[in-house]
Amino acid sequence: MMRLPNFIYRAPRTVREAADFLAAAPDTTMLVAGGTDLLPNMKRRQQTPATLVGLRQIAELKTIANGHGLTIGACATLADLVALLNDPRVRRSYAGLWQAAAQVATPHLRNMGTIGGNICLDTRCNYYDQNYEWRKAIDFCMKKDGQTCWVATSSPKCLAVSSTDTAPALIALGASVTLVSAEGTRTLPVADLYRNDGIHYLTRRPTEIVASIQVPPLEGWRSTYWKLRRRGAFDFPVLSIAAAVKLARDATVEEARIVLGAVASRPMEAPEANRSLVGQPLTDAAIAAASELAAKPSRPMDNTDFGLVWRKRVTRDFVTYALRELRGDDVRGLRRGIARQELLGLQ
Amino acid sequence: MKIIGTPRRRVDARAKVTGQTRFADDIMLPRMLHCKLLRSSVPHARLVRVDTARALAHRGVHLVLTGKDFPVPYGILPVSQDEHALAVDRVRFVGDPVAAVIARDEATAVEALDLIDVEYEPLRTFSNPDDSLAHDEPRIHDYGDGGNIHKAVSLGFGDVEQAFADADLVFEDTFFYQGNTHLPIEQHAAVAAKDPDGKLVLWSSTQTPHYVHRALAKTLDLPAAHIRVIATPNGGGFGGKSDPFNHELVVCKAAWLLDRPVKICLTREEVFYCHRGRHPVLMRFKTGVKRDGTITGVHLKTVLDGGAYGSYGVASTFYTGALQTVTYHIPTYHFQGCRVFTNKPPCGPKRGHGTPQSRFGQEIQLDKIAEKLQLDPAQYRLRIVEQPETLTANYLHVGTIGLSECIRRIVRTSDWTNKFRKLPRGRGVGLACSSYLSGAGLPIYYNDMPHSGVQLKLDRSGGVTAFCGATEIGQGSDDVLVACVAEVLGIDPHDIRPVTGDTDLTPVDLGSYSSRVTLMMGNAAIQAAERARDLLSEAVSRKLEISKDRLVFAERRVFDAEDPAKGVAFKDAVCLAEAMFGTLGTVGSYTPPRSAARYKGGGVGPSPTYSYSAAIVEVEVDPSTGWIQVPRVWIAHDIGRALNPTLVRGQVEGGVYMGLGEALMEEQEFRRLPPRLSRALVHKFPSMLEYKSPTTLDMPEVFTELVENPDPRGPFGAKEVGQGPLLPIMPAVANAVYDAIGVRIDEVPITPEKIVKALQAQAAGKTPRFGPTHFPDVPWPETLNVPPPWEGGDGKATPEAESLRSRPRDSAAVRGERGWGPARIKK
């Protein structure tokens, strides 16, 4: 990895000021909060913005409000979010988000990285997340400086992988996101923030700042997040399952949302699986059928850790783990084995 | 003994934990310039043109060097002088250094790299050994054993075909061991400067300052006496810093030309390109056994993917076949090994050097044999363990063997008998054993001089300084040095200042490789300390008027054994001796015993003594996803004697950690793009994020047992511990997976994906196995036949084979016949 290239750094105090900096030259300006994604990328010359607008000084972006639902400022660190959700009264409603946030990278990186940064995380690919010299040796790739997508050379679009942990969890929880620009403010479902395109993976406009995330009150919902990665202490997901269900008093599923992470260039919802679960309890048969349906949109490619065939194959297993946990099965041993750490048992 | 055997804080611990250890990258000198290397972006090409004009004109650039500045080749082995500091007319892998920029700072140097215009004429790329064996042209190097074969050897010890005919059962298995890299936390760094006297100084994170010293003298054409190499403490080495490297030669040349200090710090990517890591090895084991399990003979064939340069490769090749006989009794043995060149970073020595690969195959095959013969694998191994004080079929002299005790200990501590084949499906235990050298019996270049020297300075302050060329790479060699001296002189280890790894100040020690330091430096240190003790004894005995043999050195005093109150402080003893003899100094040195192996190739494998390890690994495997976890490891290591048990246990656990990485995830993998679109052949992920190595959370509980059976050849009876305990881990994991779910994974890493494939085969009624089946055709040379000792052999090859030696002479390192006198065989 090289050292950082030169850039101009702006440190606005208000969102308005930040939006103005961004509007001045949106094509050559980037936002930075924790820097845990962007700065290594810049050292590899994947991004070379002329100007960085730092959001760290903007107090209004850091607030977390827990009242009617949960409002999280985009610059709240993942560690702050985990700390809030460690409170069992809060966690009860947002267990999936807690598990997702607590499994991003390492404690050090969660102390720096923010929720806004994590949902905007650059898509990842073994042909792209390499230093400049390496990419030069393959004559670069479609996502940066080149023509071809080396993952599938006939692909017309980039196949880099959505690797955010928190976005699938937020989508499963029905969260929305507020974007602010010099022109105004808009709010949209988190699911609508994404496109299945490794380059243009966000619908965020170049002049917009992700300001906050709103998670609705979730009475009667249970949620969970399962993450597949090689090592317990680190690593981006190579498959993740966020799932949330609303259960009636008789344990019948009233609503279900299953979201797959790291299987495409955006978090993938599984509407067919969701529908199949509604109107019945989470029986083994219902879980098996839903897992089969949920695994369908999983399209792993050969550009992350582990082979694509295996990652596709175990999608079913992971959806099953998530749904069994939501049913109330004790899967703590299973989770410990996969997460290779203790803190994530659902309590 | 007061110090030896007592768990102690190591002498360099304070500096390490307070961040005061000065690594190479911490060195900042006035007027220092910075160097960056331009590395090849193509895997194999003729270098047509390197135009440095634009780079040289760039503001802040002081010098640009190319291959023209380094006409003299080098390489760690005399037989493989195939590297240039910068490419002369050919690049051989993506990452091969082409040019160097020396500039006022790193950023300027990086900018200038982009201004160097290089024209390549691409050549055919060889990405794997099959490719290299199938095509002789173009040759990656113009030397070797023909085509793209670097080295091919065939050694026969007795009639192995007859042994198979005599066997009740013959097993034949093919295994693959994937390559992996050392991954030291410290990236290589070096600073060179011309000192005020006009001599060259290099500070470098190297394990082998002596060999770097030689390479510098050769390539820079300077008198060795005008070059000083200082090995800075290494932030981990594991074999990855034991070659002389391009960047070391480049900064030396630059500092020499500019008369300013020049520094280079490699990036993590560049460390992956320096590599010299574990060779990928395809191997075929054929073993004949009697019905009771007695081995009648073994035929082992190995093919090593060497990468683009020789490095230690010739030795690595022999090492894949050298130590099988040291562990178990093998009466007849045929070894064939072949290393080929490919267009990838060069492989070399990584912890265990060449032996983990075939150890993996042998230990899995023994597990298969035990099952077929319905023997418990632990009991079976106890039956076939080699006898102590034996000369093996390939003329390796084995000293003490603590392996049986190692096996018995872990069987007991792990509750093996109640677990093996008795745990529920998805859980299992596996056992494997190993042995390793306590120092290579021969140096890299042929000479008759000692392998390690220690010099002591005692002065009237009571202080002792111990000088030795050994290199502290984190393993604790400085602590071993002072512990040996302190024990003999009866003082505290912290009273002694170690001065190590400095070619100007310290006597030669060959370096921190081959697990040689404790044994060789330790013996040299004891000799030097005993000579010093003799001088002090002489003086004190005269002063106290008692005979020398009544004097005891302990507790910083020299006193009468019969009347401990009668004595002098150590400091006063030094003063008495200084008054009597003048300035005090002593030396000690160590040369390994001569080997009985006197055939060509017999130079690889001999060691003063061998360490032994046995491990039991417990695994949990999910039968649906193949997800594998290791909750517990039991390991016992035959250490001879633990000089500092804290360090020994640290090495054992570090070996387990590294072994689990190799067993479960580590892969030095490469990407070849579709050939119709690109010639690229690149390392798949030269980063610590995507090259997967275990983290703290992935470490299991490790239960370590030290088996102490002092070996008379070791200092205070000690043997090695730096490498051996890694070796049994990988096969033990494989054997445990079989115990858990009944499938054989005959290659590393053992991943969930491979387990699923084997489970699918199992479900389909096919062989429940994942692993290679194919073994390439290799043009083996004619076999050098060496009758084993029990057939009246004398360690030499038979006359027919001797005539083959009219071929050009090879490496001194693999020459067994020169300088190796008659065997001293203890029966």
Number of helical stretches of at least 4 residues of chain A: 12
Query: Topology as H/E string of chain A?
Result: EHEHEEEHHHHHHEEEEEEEHHHH
CA-based shape of chain A: globular
> Major sheet of chain B: order of its strands?
3-5-1-12-9-10-11
From the 3D structure, determine the CATH topology of the largest domain in chain A. Answer: Enolase-like, domain 1
Largest sheet of chain B: 7 strands, mixed
| CATH class identity of the largest domain in chain B | Alpha Beta
Number of strands of chain A: 12
Number of structural domains of chain B: 3
Helical percentage of chain A: 25-40%
**Spans where pLDDT lies below 50 across 5 or more residues of chain A:** none
CATH classification class of the largest domain in chain A: Alpha Beta
Runs of chain B in which pLDDT lies below 50 for 5 or more consecutive residues are 803-827
Largest interface, with counts of residues having CB < 8 Å to the other chain, equals:
A-B, 35 and 42 residues
